[in-house]
Amino acid sequence: MPNEPRRRYVSTVVEVEGREERKIVETPDFDVAPWPADEALAIVGARVPRIDGRAKVTGRAVYTSDITLPGMLHAVLVRATSAPGRLADLDVAAARRIDGVVDVITAADLPRKVRVNALPLFGSDIVYVGQPVAAVCAASAAAARAAAAVMLREESKGDPVVDPMLAAASPEPRVLETQLLGGEPEVMQRGDVERGLAEADVVVRREYRTPSALHTAIETHAAVAQFDGERLTLWESTQGIFRVRNEVARAVGLPRSRVRVLMDYMGGGFGAKNHAGAQSVAAALFAMRTGAPVRCVLDRIAEQSDSGHRPATVQRVTLGARRDGRLTAIAADTWVALGAGGWDGGPAQIYHQLYSCPNVRTREHCVYTHSQPMAAFRGPGYTEGAFGLERAMDTLARELQLDPLELRLRNFAARDERKNREFSANGLRQCYEDASRRFGWSTRAHGASGGPRRRGFGMAAQVWPAGGGPPAYATLVLQSDGSAEVLAGTQDLGTGARTVLAQIAAQALGVPLSDVRVVLGDTERTPYTGNSWGSMTTASVGPAVRMAAVDAQARLREAAAALMQCEAGELDVCDGRVSSHDGRHSMTVAEICKRLGNVMITGHGSRGPNEPDLGLMSFGAQFAEVEVDPETGQVRVLRIVATHDVGRVINPTLAESQLVGGILQGLGYAMFEERVLDQRTALPLNPTTHDYKIPTMADVPAIDARCLGVPDNRANHIGARGLGEPPVIPTAPAIANAVADALGVEVNEIPLAPWRVRAALSATGPRGTA
Amino acid sequence: MVKLTLNGRERTLEVQPTDTLLHVLRDQLHLTGAKPGCERGECGACSVLLDDDNVYSCLTLAIACEGRRVTTIEGLAEGDALHPLQEAFIAHDAVQCGFCTPGQILAAVALLQREPHPTEAHIAAALSGNLCRCGTYPNIVRAIQAVAERADA
Predict the structure, then answer these.
(1) Segment A763-766 long-range contacts (CB within 8 Å, at least 24 positions apart)
(2) Which has more pLDDT, A496 or A157?
(3) pLDDT band at A14, cuts 50/70/90?
(4) pLDDT, tens digit (0-9, with 9 covering 90-100), for B117-131
(5) Higher pLDDT, A396 or A13
(6) Are A709 and A649 within 8 A, CB to CB?
(7) Which residues of chain A neighbour B144 with C-beta distances below 8 Å?
(8) What is the ipTM of this complex?
(9) Min distance A288 CA to chain B CA atoms (Å)
(10) What is the DSSP secondary structure assignment for residue A265, as one 8-state letter?
(11) Of the candidates A68, A268, A657, which has its C-beta nearest B93's C-beta?
(12) Closest Cα to residue A669, out of A645, A705, A637?
């Protein structure tokens, strides 16, 4: 259905996790009208089970670390055990003497300079414990581990610095060339904060601290490589097959077209698996050097010590407000302990976006420290920033003697004030209303809950850029048995992408869901889509899949018209059957495809650019109830109620599962997750799943989480925005606000270990009634 | 050499004294449903049934399984007919990435064999050695409860 000619390639701004980039993108060949917002669709919006559920409950789903190839070797990375330091000569000969060892790679063996996390791979300057310095491959993983253990020769080089305030204040850079990422603090502002503070009736100044948190996907990073003398095939547990392809191709010196990256199932990513890592490069190089397939899987300690972290932050926050609660100024100076690399995904942005306020200023210091580099971790920056901003808002509400929800309603941001533009839609008010009603906020009963324990209630809100965007492509192929195959080079991290893309395709093509198969994760066979990050997949790939299905359906109707001797315009496709409006003609898609034989019906779809100057954000509000024992400092989260606005929901069951997952990660962040580094040696002290505490089933409160489900047809033609990251963002401040409410003291640092709660109590003493 | 019953079939396997059951299952027998999440007895992704108990196969030596029954996720369904817990995990969306799922299901099978009508607290206690980072826990509880209730009828 071609329209009149238009400019096919246009320049547009693409936004990922709040960062903007100008790109040339392709405009789709034809426009697809949005599904009407009030129309009930049969398959999109339905609570259908995950289409890969059966593969996962039977153990048939193959993850990267499950892949075994004939003659496969096993690679292990050699890692620094102290930092800072310098690598002395590695004892390669000792490693090679170990029975079963086949090959060793050091910096000298790299075909070209390679950077991983912006650091030279296998470089001799050691800036964090766990930094890879070489790799060994052997017939067994045990032999490779034994060899890795005998190679290391390090020289210590002075004292490490892990505290971001100390590192920032140091007169000389102690980790990399500069103390700070970009050399200086990143300042963002609108209006005049000093004037705003002068106009304020109440000013709140507080310091907040958040911990470094570890992604802790249950599947560690893994790569399996095979080289046939010309082409490299790499299976990788990754959120971005094309990015890994490009990075590995560059590292090993092959053209991209000769590197194929595959990813079918993966055991979680949460932001840690966005790039090729040392394991990818090592597996690829060993495969090329030895001719044998090579598998490199990180062990748990390596995973916790060298696959990225949510950086610890210090946030000095100043809020000014008039007596009626209207904010006059928001200011935050933040310090972010990046580790030995990372990007500027700090807490600052949410301070500019969540509330309406004329005067906002942040000064963000992204500080290099002697730890593993940071990596995006679900809602990066916004999750940390929400803790500071939403704790401060709660304190402001107390100072103003306003209900915390009322304070937030009075500062509702109707526009994206940071960029001075409209939002495509903002359902935050409805989220507040819906969640507070289900929670029973207005009738909450304070006080003792039996014995010495006290009950408290808290809430927090969230904003997150979640519009997705181009480029993303999809192809839909009708098979000769009438089933449809959707090809899209994206990844399903466990989010349900495979299922929601199948629902979109089935809905748009007019066939039952069971007739759709979705093929993802193959740089050679599936068309380009970007990384599964920034809550982008549904809003980016979904419209491309729908367009491919619409394109295929148009061709199907034309082919059917030829078979039925009627006009394509008379035909509709519904539930796997092509019928004329008058009911005279009707055939199943399977019959048509069978009759067509080897004539292929293929539809192509692409994701068009977003409307310029439009804020595409997902919003949400969460409410928490806790019980605290002031004698022991023990906090128990009793329940969380959440409502999020993510536009149209393709599958409410899967959406709610993802909300619950985000809330539980937020609960872990609030309650017990904290990567601990020894201040003197920079050694990670809890790099295991025993000592680094993620929530277990015994930690789960009652969770009631839902989406508003109001389609956002201004965002894109499927009406959906992103959902993956938003739910983690407000959980920790909602819980901390509830603890503060229970005890009548401020808790300005997470995780809320009993000792911190006790310290908060003894610092301020209990206040209010219990 | 170790003789055991694996997923209902008697097997005699050549193993090293130091081989873990997880290693033998995955690397020798290519039964990869048991996952190596930590290989240090912390995460439970490698859970299998040894007789009627769920064990961490990464901490279980293969030679210690002499004469015993080992059941992995691959042996749970009967042909195409899924075990009721497998069905319930799908129906209640107790699966996200799926990496921990085989271990969760086998831990649940062992629980229901021990205790056909567990309380929510018993479920949480029995499965808290099986970590899930995606956050499927509430749906796992629902799936187990649904199967326990059906056993009632």
Answers:
(1) A766/A630
(2) A496
(3) confident
(4) 999 999 999 999 999
(5) A396
(6) yes
(7) none
(8) 0.98
(9) 23
(10) B
(11) A657
(12) A637
